[in-house]
Design brief:
With 291 residues, the chain is an alpha/beta fold. The protein has 11 helices and 12 strands. The strands form 2 sheets. Strands 1, 2, 3, 4, 5 and 6 form a 6-stranded mixed beta sheet that branches. It has a 6-stranded mixed beta sheet with strand order 9-8-7-10-11-12. α9 links the parallel β8 and β9. The longest helix has 16 residues.
Length: 291
């Protein structure tokens, strides 16, 4: 009997060669992201930049086997053949979807001959979006905040603003860190363009609406920064040059420090904060006011 790992590995290598240079991520509509909940396994394409497709790393067949066992358990209990979490994908040109997260579940579904899998479609920030953001920038000062580390507050640490009311809280389960609304309004009033970043796979409009529900305006949103292979070294250098030329000053508020970079004076300053969740935003505003 043929080793199923060999047959899948052969399929994967053929799929990688077929997809190379063919598929590119494109924007998906809000309706697609709301109503497309599953798709055929055949419409999913591996992300060639993921380690799953790296010949030096490749699939972990123990993980794939565990997912197959999960599917067999669901089938034995007469439950729908689906995973607990949806596979995260981007819409692709010319067709189908590129996997962002879930390659091993996709492999398990293929090896289990599942006709379809649950998916979550996201529209991440593309390099072309960042170019437009820089072209449309209104000020020569920028505040860059990390959504995951700074802006969003872990539910368990008790340092969050009041949660959004029902039913918005069912869609947007994140909460703002205490002091963020006041800090963002201060930055806007003092001539800063506000940029927020996330390594997570959030759609740009998801983040935009989230802030609007809190009555806050964000200038630029960059999501999926952990995604590999989206920018060449030349593109990264070009973007860095554009940012330096556009912004004379960039500040990076964090929980225990504030970093200020002056591209004109070529200086880098770091100001230590107490880390007190009740006062950290006020500390940042006082430092920036003095500067």
């Amino acid at each position: 009997m043929a080793d199923p790992r060999v047959s899948f590995q052969t399929f994967l290598e053929e799929e990688i060669n077929r997809c190379r240079g063919l598929y590119a991520p494109i924007k998906s509509s809000l309706l697609e992201r709301l109503f497309v909940r599953k798709t055929s396994c055949k419409k999913l394409h591996p992300n060639l930049e993921d380690e799953f497709c790296d010949p030096k790393i490749g699939p972990n067949y123990e993980i794939i086997s565990n997912y197959q066992e999960e599917l067999r358990t669901l089938q034995a209990h007469a439950q729908p053949q689906k995973f607990k979490e949806r596979l995260i994908v981007e819409k692709a040109h010319p067709d189908g979807y590129i996997l962002l997260n879930g390659h091993h579940r996709w492999a398990a579904a293929l090896r289990s001959a599942l006709p379809s899998v649950p998916i979550k479609i996201v529209s991440l920030t593309q390099t072309s979006d960042v170019y437009k953001m820089l072209e449309n920038a209104k000020h020569d000062q920028r505040a860059a905040l990390d959504l995951d580390e700074v802006v969003f507050a872990p539910a368990q640490d008790g340092a969050a603003e009041k949660a959004l009311p029902f039913p918005a809280n069912k869609v947007y389960q994140q909460q703002l860190r205490r002091g963020i609304p006041e800090l963002l309004r201060f930055l806007k009033n003092h001539g800063y363009d506000i940029w927020v970043y996330s390594a997570q796979y959030y759609s740009m409009d998801y983040i935009q609406v989230f802030f609007k529900l809190y009555g806050l305006q964000i200038d630029n949103i960059v999501t999926g920064t952990s995604r590999k292979g989206q920018q060449s070294a030349e593109e990264k250098k070009q973007l860095e040059t554009m940012i330096t030329k556009k912004y004379a000053v960039t500040v990076h508020p964090a929980l225990r420090s504030l970093t200020r970079i002056s591209s004109e004076a070529k200086t880098f300053e770091e100001y230590e904060l107490t880390g007190n969740p009740e006062t950290w935003a006020q500390e940042i505003m006082e430092i920036l006011s003095k500067l």
